[in-house]
Structure prediction request, 363 residues.
Amino acid sequence: MRVRVLGIESSCDDTAAAVVAHTPGARPEILSNVVLGQADLHARFGGVVPEIAARAHVEKLDHAVAAALDAAGLDLRDLDAIAVTAGPGLIGGVLSGVMLAKGLAAATGLPLLGINHLAGHALTPRLTDDVAFPYLMLLVSGGHCQFLLVRGPEDYTRLGGTVDDAPGEAFDKVARLLALPQPGGPAVEAEARTGDPSRHPLPRPLLDRPGCDLSFSGLKTAVLRARDTLVARDGGLHRAARADLCAAFQGAVSDVLTEKSRRALALYLAAAPPQPVFAVAGGVAANLCLRRALEAQAQAAGARFFAPPLALCTDNAAMIAWAGIERLRQGATGDAEVTARPRWPLDTASPALIGAGRKGAKA
Ligand code: KG4
Ligand code: ZN
Prediction:
């Protein structure tokens, strides 16, 4: 039977709503995918301000839902369920989404599903491509960084993750250090295009340690030192020197993620999955230098490589609706109680890695 699910996402700084439809045996269809960003509200603070984000979600959420239903040409009565991000993330935002979803479910009698935001990212390759379980996923964004073995919609093993900053967070901080605009990732990547990555020998954190854990905060500090040395020597930071520094930083991030991906792939492939797949998601997956390196690593290991289109890599509600559909397909009939959770690791068996970062809880 065809199901149509409304997804709601408000865990960071994007207010999003979407409708996804699915008929068993057919490809899922994204009927609408509305994302109302808040970048302008946070720009002058140099990062996401949780209270401002929560207030903006309260103001924008019902508009996002109305726009998503409108674009899909549907009414609330046409839906089969409502899926909402219940964590992890900035608690004010998560609460806004959960309260709205609860209200809609109570008013319509529709089943309500509380979705883990990370599961939304992790299941995206199955929304965009015909990917079978189990697959290996690298989640790299402004708030998350982890390798996940995805065995089912609610079956994850974390093979490793960052012990401090997420890579997108590091890109953003480096951009700030070098007086480049936010978000830092695209700005640093553009600058790096004309730079020479070999001029500044930056560290490759944690490569000397076994396993798949990562660290990015030392790299950011190394960029700060290199910048200060250049400023002291040249009396300022020249354009070409800045490009070299960006290229060196991007190269270091890419090297570390690629080597850790090699290790994660070896762990994943040891269980001889029938159709090996390595997928990447999150805003940092937009980085071409990184994407190419990861794709080459996957090919060398004999795994197919998938990177969803950018609009579905970054935060959105289509992935939340889809994660809801995956759960319905497994027999879920709705959650009796949905609680907003600032922290909610996908893999509850592995020990927690870190605390909360600038963009919210990362584990
Ligand atoms: O997934 P996302 O939209 O939001 C969350 O953090 O959940 O990711 C945003 C992050 C930002 O830190 C941004 O700087 C980074 O992704 N990013 C990039 C690129 N485009 C976006 N990082 C490196 N290279 C890029 N081209
Ligand atoms: Zn996210």
